[in-house]
Hints:
One of its GO terms (biological process) is negative regulation of DNA-templated transcription. The chain has 85 residues and is mainly alpha-helical. The chain has helices at residues 14-27, 40-47, 51-63; strands at 67-70, 74-77.
Amino acid sequence: MSEDEIDYDAPTPPYRQIAAVIIGEIERGVLQPNRPIPSEATMIQRWGVARDTARRAVRYLRDEGYVYTVPQRGTFVSARPGDSE
């Protein structure tokens, strides 16, 4: 199964699967600090999920400190401890 597919039979909920992919992209440097993460619309298209699922993934990432949201601008990768800017 590719990272662009959701395993609906897995014990991990879809929003956590999406968050795990985005966390992996952050940790590998694909998504850089202070740069935007994929939009909700992009997540919906990429993973074929409902808007609420995409929002829950973003909320989880924000709650875990991986991203921050700027109203009317978007959601961006947080600078992680030890990152040089």
